[in-house]
Amino acid sequence: MTSNGARPRPPRKIGPRLLAPSRILRPTIRRAGGGRDRGALVVKSYDMIAAGSKSFASASLLFDKATRERVWMLYAWCRRCDDIADGQELGGTLGSQSNLADRVKAIRVLTRRALDGEPTADVAFDAFGQVASECGLTMEMAEDVIMGFELDAAGWRPRTEADLARYCYHVAGAVGVMMAQVMGVPSGDSETLDRACDLGLAFQLANIARDLDEDDAADRCYLPMEWLAEQDIEPGQLMKPHHRWEVAELANRLVVRMDRHLKMARLGTVGLPFRSRWAILSAANIYGEIGYTVRRRGREAWNQRVVVSSWDKLRMIASAFFEALRNTPRPPDDAPEWTRGDILIDVRMAGAIAPPPMTPLPDEA
């Protein structure tokens, strides 16, 4: 008891003080480009396109300033996604192909953060967030591209021409559609967007024809299994010397398809502003030359990597200038077999491409 006879109070238990949520966690401020300075994003994006694709960098300089900057930022995202998926740097030598599924997951997460205006700690993804906010690019558009990386991560290979069409759409045709919107093509202008898809498909077909040897060295093959069976090319023997004539024939089939899609793509440039039309026609000429060179070289196309010289690029850009002035492209004699509409039906309704069945193809029986 105390001196005045009162009973002492028990000591008060003091628990941990709870802070208001606002004092613990502050919400991330959502800003286009993750809060980075737009000018800095543009500079970094150009550095990536200049190092990763000299052909496209040359053509992109022909756009007006606003379009050019947006094209660079979209390209930076495409290039960075490709590098993450392939474990490489600016399209260089392929790195380790382990943990591919985790890499694709990272691409998807960073892309979502960029579209939500959250910082990603990666300049290319922040640049994508910036251009997406300016041009109305969506996660569905990005998903069409990411699904191409997902197919590679699963070790997928095309069994049929329809499978090849879908792969080309994911990795290039869908990018063409996004590029068109970056250039100001309305989302409801299906005709022009279809032609933009044709351009992407053509670019990818040229890339596949040129890179058959590099892909084979990385244990990848984008030629349909049905084509290989028709030519009696055994698994693992694609780039062996005794099959060079057959491979040259298959590469020619790719180039024929490339040519048809390029000619269709030119039809879509008619309504574009002059500088955009000139840039697109220049890119078409340069990438087309890659495919045509593969065809001219025949069985020797993979003795040395096909490149378009600086002089040839200037010549093709000059040719594209006059094409853009005339603005009277001719349609192909034979329309492409693949259309964006048919591919999208497969993409939207068929779901993921199943692993190829182990049943023998007709020519193998």
From TrEMBL:
Primary enzyme class: transferase
Keywords, sorted A to Z: Transferase
Transmembrane segments: none
Pfam families from the UniProt entry: SQS_PSY
E.C. number(s) listed in UniProt: 2.5.1.32
GO term, biological process aspect, one: carotenoid biosynthetic process
SUPFAM superfamilies (alphabetical): Terpenoid synthases (SSF48576)
GO molecular function terms attached to this record: geranylgeranyl diphosphate synthase activity; squalene synthase [NAD(P)H] activity
The protein's name in its UniProt record: Phytoene synthase
